[in-house]
Task: structure prediction
Amino acid sequence: DTAVSQTPKYLVTQMGNDKSIKCEQNLGHDTMYWYKQDSKKFLKIMFSYNNKELIINETVPNRFSPKSPDKAHLNLHINSLELGDSAVYFCASSQERGGRPGELFFGEGSRLTVL
Amino acid sequence: AQRVTQPEKLLSVFKGAPVELKCNYSYSGSPELFWYVQYSRQRLQLLLRHISRESIKGFTADLNKGETSFHLKKPFAQEEDSAMYYCALGDGGFKTIFGAGTRLFVKA
Result:
């Protein structure tokens, strides 16, 4: 009965490869997010989708492409991986309340290591 | 620009001592502020939000608009409070901006 689940939890890959991280939420929320946590534990928003529409797209290289096939899923595809992409990627979801996001529910994170 | 500042990367206190984790924000509108916590081997989760004005696990946080602060306080720290704490700001839209986090270590 996990609320927000991400796969894989760990991903080790070579520079230049393409990889995807998947996220699913069973909370019925209408908004989903991708956050990046760097080695200093700083948490930075990357993307957000509301009802399958992209609403937040921070300054992220276009090698990163989110895709939301439906409200319950938000996947992150990364092309041509670079060393600096190594981080923990967190998926989150929330339910809009009066035009504002409610509490964020986070997945466990996906630790990406680029060699 | 919207910003959340947590000046302490690490805070170490003894069990039973008071603890205060500092958070300052920069925001031109009416802020919505949160504290999130990440315990070891657990996912990041909401601890409290300023509009609730409640105490969770003995923690409280008061929004001080004059000082643009939202410090997290607990009168008597417990070992199980050891965790990473993030102050966060809702920007009025769908973006929640996080501070850099403070790791709290409560010593026995």
Summary: The first strand of chain B starts at residue 3 and ends at 5. The radius of gyration of chain B is 13 Å. The interface with chain A takes residues 32, 34, 36, 43-46, 49, 84, 86, 90, 92-98, 100-101, 103 of chain B (CB under 8 Å). Residues 84 and 103 of chain B are 4 Å apart (CA to CA).
